[in-house]
Amino acid sequence: MSAAIFARHDGVWLNEPERWTAQGDGLEIVTDKATDFWQKTHYGFCRDSGHFLGFQTAEAFTAELRVKCDFQELYDQAGIMVRIDAEHWVKAGIEFSDGRAMLSSVLTNGQSDWATAPYQHYAGDFWMRVTVTGGVLRLQASADGKIWPLVRLAPFTKAGSYWVGPMACTPEREGLPVTFTKFSLKPPLGKDLHDLS
């Protein structure tokens, strides 16, 4: 699928935001109030109210996405999501936590974990890449769409197909504008783990 995927409206919304537009290779959304994805861990609650525009994949794929956003308040987040159902998914991108933008990923298999690290580049414009093949998920992030350091390598539930696409949440508020562009969905890259191209 090419970068013009948003304009073709091939995606399926989970929790469609009240305000969004798609044109060319761009998707612009504004988050609704108290939106989130989370399952049980630490807090005890289950949340499946975040915004996600999913595109169906094969059993193995690589997806890339560019995200532009001005993160300002606690738990503001945007990035990419891979989903089987409400209890089997991963979301990854930038999340505002402890007063700064963090590179964040949450892997959920019945219960959610949460891994963060300070993001050393400009958080207002970044890229995410996810590859799923053979029960393994590989997450990468990029500041320029050219160099892709590893974010996470993890086992991931095997399925005949998945849903993948842009994700955004604001658990503590509403009104975060996010722009997604350059979305692509292709066969898995098959690159060596330390090949960062």
Automatic annotation (TrEMBL):
<dbReference type="Pfam" id="PF07081">
    <property type="entry name" value="DUF1349"/>
</dbReference>
<dbReference type="InterPro" id="IPR013320">
    <property type="entry name" value="ConA-like_dom_sf"/>
</dbReference>
<protein>
    <submittedName>
        <fullName>DUF1349 domain-containing protein</fullName>
    </submittedName>
</protein>
<dbReference type="InterPro" id="IPR015987">
    <property type="entry name" value="UCP022704"/>
</dbReference>
<dbReference type="InterPro" id="IPR009784">
    <property type="entry name" value="DUF1349"/>
</dbReference>
